[in-house]
Please model this.
Amino acid sequence: MTSSDRFRLIVLRHPREAKSPLGTADLLVREIPDTLVRTGLSWPNLQAASGDESVTAAHWGVLFVGTKADRKRLLLGSGSGGGRRLVFLSRKGKAVEDDTSLRESLEGLVLLDGTWRQSKALWWRNPWLLRLRRVMLNPDAPSLYGKLRREPRRECLSTFEAAILALRELGRVQEPSVFFEALKAHLDGLAGGTAGPRRSGTPRSDGQDRR
Model:
């Protein structure tokens, strides 16, 4: 992460995902220590989810997968979002052509952690997410999960991958390859039956909700 200012990640994790060995939220905390993981189904607002009364929805984004039609229209077409790896959506659901001010004012991102069905449940149980800036990713490669966990669509990624790609596109990480090496080691360990991911940073012992 850049040292000039603080950029926060909040992961809203479905309770069932917290019990899955394939989850990547804890790895994200180890690699990006400022990450806050909240386990549960709903929170009344961003302030409650973040534990910070000073945050404002206008300066936060939420990673949004969207429908296949959304992706074709916003990311793969010839419009203003076509070809970009990260696109901000307007309140009307259109790709923002000049997103410079949005990028500069963004203070953090919310990610939903769980299976496809669990993530949708989190989305619908937390209507305040609609007040945040929706951000869509256009990944250049499929998830490293491979056969360990089948993703419903090619563009669906693990929470860890989505976070690192978003940070890369926002200029918040300098060498994303280091983080993906950590994820690969973690997944290789799961496939081989060994415990514990390789750590490239200092683990964080606080800041997580374990309810």
